[in-house]
Amino acid sequence: MPGLYFHIPFCKRICAYCDFYKSADLRRMDDVVEAMHRELERQSGYLGGEPLRTRYFGGGTPSLCSPRQISDLLARAADLFDCRAVEETTLEANPDDLDGRYLEALRLAGVDRLSIGVQSFDDACLRLMNRRHTAAQAVEAIGRARAAGFDNLTVDLIFGIPGFGGDTLRRSLDTALELRPEHISAYHLTVEPGTTFGRRAARGEFAPVDEAISEEEFLTVHRTLTQAGYEHYEVSNFALPGRRARHNAAYWHGEKYLGIGPAAHSYDGRERHWNAASVDRYLAGEPAERELLTDRDRLNEYLLTRLRTAEGIDLRETERLFGAEQRARIVRDAARFIESGTLVATEVALKIPPERFLTSDAVIGALFCET
Hints:
A nine-stranded mixed sheet has the order 7-8-6-5-4-3-2-1-9, sandwiched between helices. It has a three-stranded antiparallel sheet with strand order 10-11-12, with no helix packed on it. The chain has a three-stranded antiparallel sheet with strand order 13-15-14. The chain has helices at residues 29-42, 67-80, 100-109, 123-128, 135-147, 166-179, 196-202, 211-227, 246-252, 279-283, 295-306, 315-322, 324-340, 360-367, and strands spanning 3-8, 54-59, 88-93, 113-119, 153-159, 183-188, 231-234, 237-239, 257-260, 265-267, 271-274, 289-292, 313-314, 344-345, 349-351. It contains 14 helices and 15 strands. Strand 2 (54-59), helix 2 (67-80) and strand 3 (88-93) form a beta-alpha-beta unit. The two termini are 31 Å apart. It is α/β, with parallel strands linked by helices.
């Protein structure tokens, strides 16, 4: 079943690591939200009448939207799409936006899951990343969310930050576990050009952690969270039993989704669409760009997304979707990784052990179809 994604591109402050499309000009918020309503109407047939399973507000900082704006977008979506079977409605939020009144209004609007961008429970690390909250504010926000009735929370953390591994990382993980969110996303820092970290790195003022430290910190995260009862079910995602992120899982399993808003992406099963990564161009009605996926594209994307999950690829499904010849090629190319333990093979599946997820890109690339 498909998902519906709303991209809210606005931020009060730009984080040092972020290379997503965003804007700090909050004066354009109302205009963008109005344009998103119009886009919903234009795209009402995109998913072919299939009922929605999930709705997701990402960004940017969706918690800068008023509860009325959130409620109105959800109500308009319910007018245009079959939302009767929706299982999860998520809103990404910054901790310092989450006061009690706002949280209660979000619940009334129909949001039942919060993705809280904590990133670290260390104040010095938060300052380095240019986050606008403190560790104490993050803890308090999670407590207020619980008090408001939210029983499905995910906390985002970042590791691989120079100077903040070791005991600092372990303390952040311990604090997260004390709060016991249903889901934890733990991302390794990637230093991208165009970000504050990227510009500092280009000047020689900021050096990413080396491969050995990356692996050490990844294993610290993996072991700490899995020993605490979380399932490591995707490269960067951990969940208590039954609490996987349903919206994100749709991306990893090739489901359709419709994206609304500046820079939002959509996928209808064969073609990918993406809106202009510019508030001005989006408001001007610039048409979405399109890419028709070839059979090779679809196969490689299938490998890329499935092998990032604990289930890996089902070889029966691979054969059904792409043919016996491709199944045989993948099994043949996988042999050296199976021998080294980087891939695990069963009669019907190939998968990367979660403790080896850090190497997934190299394995997946080696299995790609080149012709």
